[in-house]
Amino acid sequence: MKIGSKIVYPMHGAGTIVKIEQEDFFGERKEYCTVKVAQKEMTLKFPLDRRESLHIRNVSSMEKILDEISSHKPEEYIYSPNWNKRYQTTLDKMKTGSPSDMATVLVNLKSLENTKGLSSGERQLYHNAMDILASELMLIRDCDYDGAYEILEKHLEETLCEI
Known about the structure:
CATH class of the largest domain: Mainly Alpha
Strand content: 15-25%
Low-confidence stretches: none
Helix content: 40-55%
Strand order of the largest sheet: 4-3-2-1-5
Distance between the termini: 39 Å
CATH topology of the largest domain: Methane Monooxygenase Hydroxylase, Chain G, domain 1
Radius of gyration: 17 Å
Shape: globular
Structural class: alpha+beta
CATH superfamily of the largest domain: CarD-like, C-terminal domain
């Protein structure tokens, strides 16, 4: 990791590393990374030695993201009548931040929306997942949020039409 690297911070989105510095943390020197999130007016800071446990990863490629969306089909749990179980399973997938899990979340929630509608909590998860992947596409394609969101939405619709 170095200044200028593009990374994804699960549940917050993709951003660019703007600073790496050492700080004192209860008498111990630790290296911290500061990230400017692409889609939001937000700056995040995390200790570099916690990168793996926070599931922070490098930005993917557009092809990988779109291929992941194309390759997923709605999973059984999404049609469960137990709203709480659907919500928790979806949230757990989002916390990993992997392109595969984010694609699964989008396909599952969009499919559920098309068949019976989303609760307000599930709608919020859907928009969060779209925001996270859109921020990643913003960095990949060097485009604005609306353009990235539109790419994802169009690809998602095409994928669900094929199922």
